[in-house]
Write a structure and sequence with these properties.
alpha+beta; Alpha-Beta Plaits; nine-stranded mixed sheet; two-stranded antiparallel ribbon; 5 helices; 11 strands
Length: about 210
Amino acid sequence: MQFKAQVHYQQLQPPPTLLLHKPYGVLSQFRREPGSSWESLASLVAQPGVYAAGRLDADSEGLLILTANGVLQHRLTDPRWGHWRYYWVQVEGSADQAAIEKLQLGIQLKDGISRPARARLLQPSEYEQLPARLPPIRLRLTVPTSWIELGLQEGRNRQVRRMSAAVGLPTLRLIRVGIDLMDGADPLNLEGLAVGKWRPVTAEEEQRLQRLAN
């Protein structure tokens, strides 16, 4: 008598998509670079199988989307789709409307002119509630600082820092505060996420991301 083994296949669910508030000093990858003092995402996120959709430099902070969906990763990072990313930038010097207008028009960089940006001056009531950076920013008592919001549709290497420097306002601190899914709803943001913390996307956010990937 022959017996046929019954094999039951359990459909594996993909890892959930996560939102992370990346702190200063952490690479946007799960592997540490040899000889580097920067930490990796593995020190913060105990969820295997997800990867950053886009990146933030180790010395930048803010919102990262972590997903296992390769199509979604591509859609969010390909500049042809033009997803707006919003940054709050502390700069050295007094930002004025002339600098804002230059950023809005586009800046000539070594790798070509940048796309027109969305830019505005931030008021103290907006940025004073931000958590302090660790380690803190090195400030010069004789040099003022100011804050601007910058929205970009592309993500060239260290683009925000290069653009601010080009208008005479070197970047001191850089925080990505939002990613627009271009679906008419509010951008994904850092609301409710402490520095270094992450959460799975909500059911509504998951639906928005799935529509984007499809």
